[in-house]
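Allow me, if you will, to draw on your knowledge of protein folds for a short while. I am sending you one protein, given as its amino acid sequence and as whole-number tokens for its backbone shapes. Kindly check, if you would, that the fold set down in the tokens agrees with what the sequence suggests. The record follows directly beneath this note:
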Amino acid sequence: MPSVDQVNHILSTLQEPITGEKLLSVTSKPVIQVQGKQITITLSIGYPLEPSARTLLASQVKDAVSQAYPEVSVSVTVDVQISKRQVQAGLKNLAGVKNIIAVASGKGGVGKSTTAVNLSLALQTAGARVGLLDADIYGPSMPTMLGLVDAKPESLDGKRLEPLMRFGLQTISIGNLIDEKAPVIWRGPMVSSVLQQLFADTRWQDLDYLIVDLPPGTGDIQLTLCQKIPLSGAVIVTTPQDIALADVKKAIAMFNKVNVNVLGVVENMSYYQCSHCGEIDHLFGQEGAKRLCEEFDVDLLGQIPLTKLVRECADNGKPITHVFPDDKVSLGYKELAHHVSVKLAQCAKNYTSLFPDIVVE
């Protein structure tokens, strides 16, 4: 009969099915019981996973152990336990929110907001409780993308805002608080103050993830927000073209400066596939994000193609991952969400290494 250590060794050789990461790097310590000819394994994973995917993972673990020890009966249970991850030193987690993930871009026009919306919905589809905060004060697009242009948040106690609900997401945007046609002519300090109020004065309700659509760029507003908001990690959106990639380098440097873990880069508008002949054209260049990720040792989380359907769904207030969940692009967003959540689950293992040891003599 195998020992607990021998079973644990088998688990240490297995990979997370989609990302290829070591399985034990994204789980809590497995509970292994060996009684007679029965082995019971309980895995607690730190990321959302649909029931069918949990069953598949359990089956893979069971097969690996059974292959090594065919004479025993193996039972595997997979539980999801999404916990709080560490944030920047000196900041506390937001009430009602386990993890805040910033979606950022070095420049505008790369599809950051579209990515934030569909990432949020994909995480929810996997089984997580998700909120979405539109922090792009000068160009709030969430009300349009989510079909909430005329919606106004309520306050039950006169102090805190109730998030608007759409497609199961808890969401709030400055676009739902001001006149849609009125220009926002605010200086940096006022913008930062308003956004901090949106974070703190919204009554988020038991969220696993709060996705924050940051304003584009790496200026004073973005830097201040990243210093004041307790972020678990950041996702950077870019296109393959060189001019966009140059700004991604600045975004990575900004997050490193404030000790926020960069979970990886998303290459949006990665390519265009003709709907008639199927030919693929790399309109904005090819493998630019891949080269950048290799240079800065960060993960390439996903490559999303350029399609008319994404734009049409966003303009109609019904994101593609909600309306066409089985579309190729929607499946790409689901894979992106999986990579992001798995990467964040690993942060519990190594996040403290980002901070220096403080010695008082």
Summary: Residues 349-361 have pLDDT under 50 and may be disordered. The chain is about 35% helix and 20% strand.
